[in-house]
TrEMBL record:
SUPFAM superfamilies: Chelatase. GO terms for molecular function: lyase activity; metal ion binding. It comes from the Bacteria. The keyword Manganese does not apply. This is Sirohydrochlorin chelatase. It comes from Quadrisphaera setariae. Keywords: Lyase, Metal-binding. InterPro entries: CbiX-like, Sirohydro_Cobaltochel/CbiX. The keyword Cytoplasm does not apply.
Amino acid sequence: MLVAVSHGTRSATGRRTIAQLRLAVAAARPGVEVLAAHVDVQKPALDDVVARLAAAGRACVVVPLLLSTGYHVRSDVASAVRAARAAGGSAVAAAALGPDDALVDLLCDRLAAAGAHDDDAVVLAAAGSLAPRAVADVEHVLAALSARRAGPVTAGYASAQEPTVPQACAALRQLDGGPPGRRVAVVPYLLAPGVFSQRLDALLGDGTADVVAKTLCADGEVDQRLADLALRRYDEALAAAGALEEGDLSPLAGVR
């Protein structure tokens, strides 16, 4: 059993897009049942889903459809898994989707699809977090993206941190040594449309950037590489669980 847990959103487009991602995960691995869960805004709530599975004697792997190891992974996912195991169930938590080279590939593709040139300056627009691990995850992706491009790359944030995305765009325009009229492209490091992409649109509404790419998943455009990455995290969690003492996670033997 794979519990695909997303943040949850009030955006109808965001809900539809994440549902499409879950369907892509299920289609790529027909032998694995995929259940939806959320840590905020939407139902069913993650702790309810995992507790129900534990009560039914069903083992599960919780796969966060989240890009970094922030509060929701460290707190919500971890506590749901701990509660299920305390109740006698078998549950393990997979790692967040990012950082990963597959996400960097997607960011590059989103930039190209939006019309960005290789020498454009780029702002990696992340949601922002106060969690040091989440910040480090974004910096890891930033370094990998920068290594693939000719122009400068920096991060901007929609909340919690600075620089903001507009501040990052302005700083790139003021860089010395760039070509005259260098363009600035923004690529959202966001899984799907929702509150942060709406906030980003508002921040960029005055033409702050020359090019604005789509989120990693866009409405009707779920890339198979994201589904494959979620399944890789699932497999990694199962492999790690198998390395523990057999008595801890023996019911997981039938999950595959």
